[in-house]
Amino acid sequence: MPYVQVADLRIYYQEAGQGAPLVLLHGSTGVIARHWLPQLAGLSPYCRVLALDLRGHGRTTNPAPELDFRQMAEDVAGFCAALGLARYHLCGFSMGAVLGLYLALAYPERVGSLLLLGACYQAAGSTLVRGDTFVPEKIEREEPEWAAALQANHAPVYGPDYWRTLCQQLSVAWTRQPDLAREDLRRIACPTLVARGDRDDVMALEQSLDLWREIPGAELFIAPGAPHMFHTERAALFNAVALDFLRRRAGLGP
Question: Which of 232, 195, 67 is nearest to 134 (CA)?
Answer without folding.
Answer: 67
